[in-house]
From TrEMBL:
SMART domains in alphabetical order: AAA
Annotated keywords: ATP-binding, Cell membrane, Membrane, Nucleotide-binding, Phosphonate transport, Translocase, Transport
Protein name: Phosphonate ABC transporter ATP-binding protein
Gene Ontology CC: one annotated term: membrane
């Protein structure tokens, strides 16, 4: 790994009951890159992100983060400083107030007592206030999360990520549930937060328009394989048509 590389996938294969989700995938990502992950439904985008965030483990191959095999990160606390993920359903707890959800970004760093106490008296309130200010909804600090709109909830998820402050941000279709205007607001906010803080960002995204507008590099996955990996300005219609074409492929070997 060179000093610029922050993520390395080496021959990663992931199968689900014989169905191959990712097939001998290898690529590297440099620190600070903004990478869009595109490809048809079922091409392996979520699986790739889940492996990186350690929600799932690969059948074969190795993933390195900052030169260390992810199998060797034994502490969740340390890993939470390396990798954070925003998922399609935001993973917020509806019944809690916004401040509690935002401060959940600190849970890995708190002991059990402080974590439990935080449900009654939010700890480190200033941290939450600053994060909510940055995403533009500080007035919602004590609102019940379920009363917020989808776009506001996504901002809460971003604020939680700011509090967690990982080096690598993963986002799985972060704006798919929002209307086009909110989607673009939230996406451009995510990109600015990543750029301002020199984070590495990998986002799966269905919108080619947004991939082209906001990202540096595009990885196209098809049937769990790397179909292309290009600087965004080298993406062309021919490649995109081929990526999304419905060629019948037998995945069950
Ligand atoms: N938990 C699971 N159990 C069984 N098969 C799975 C599981 N998760 C994913 N798969 C299969 O792995 C393949 C890749 O799925 P994945 O969710 O990674 O695709 P995706 O590109 O994220 O799709 P989408 O764009 O629809 O979210 C698919 O064939 C899917 O059916």
């Amino acid at each position: 790994m060179t000093s610029k590389e922050i993520i390395k996938f080496k021959n990663i294969t992931k199968k689900f009951k014989g169905n191959i989700a990712l097939s001998s995938l290898s690529f590297n990502i440099n620190k600070g890159e903004l990478v869009a992950l595109i490809g048809p439904s079922g091409s392996g985008k979520t699986t790739l992100l889940n492996l990186l965030s350690k929600i799932q483990t690969a059948n074969t191959g190795d993933i390195f983060i900052e030169n260390t095999n992810i199998k060797d990160y034994k502490s969740n606390k340390l890993y939470a400083k390396k990798v954070g993920m925003i998922r399609q359903q935001f993973d917020l707890i509806d019944e809690l107030t916004v401040i509690n959800n935002v401060l959940a970004g600190r849970l890995n760093e708190w002991n059990i007592l402080k974590s439990l106490l935080s449900l009654i008296i939010p700890q480190e309130k200033k941290l939450a206030v600053n994060a909510l200010k940055r995403v533009g909804i500080e007035e919602k600090l004590f609102a019940k999360t379920s009363t917020l709109s989808g776009g506001q909830q996504q901002r809460v998820a971003l604020a939680r990520l700011l509090v967690q402050n990982p080096n690598i941000i993963l986002a799985d279709e972060p704006v798919s549930s929002l209307d086009p205007t909110r989607a673009e607001d939230v996406l451009s906010l995510l990109i600015s937060l990543a750029k301002e803080n020199n984070k590495t960002l990998i986002t799966s995204i269905h919108s080619i328009k947004y991939a082209k507008k906001y990202f540096d590099r595009v990885i196209g996955l098809r049937n769990g394989e790397l179909f292309f990996d290009l600087p965004v300005n080298e993406l062309n219609e021919g490649l995109l048509t081929e990526l999304y074409s419905l060629k019948k492929v037998n995945n069950n070997e």
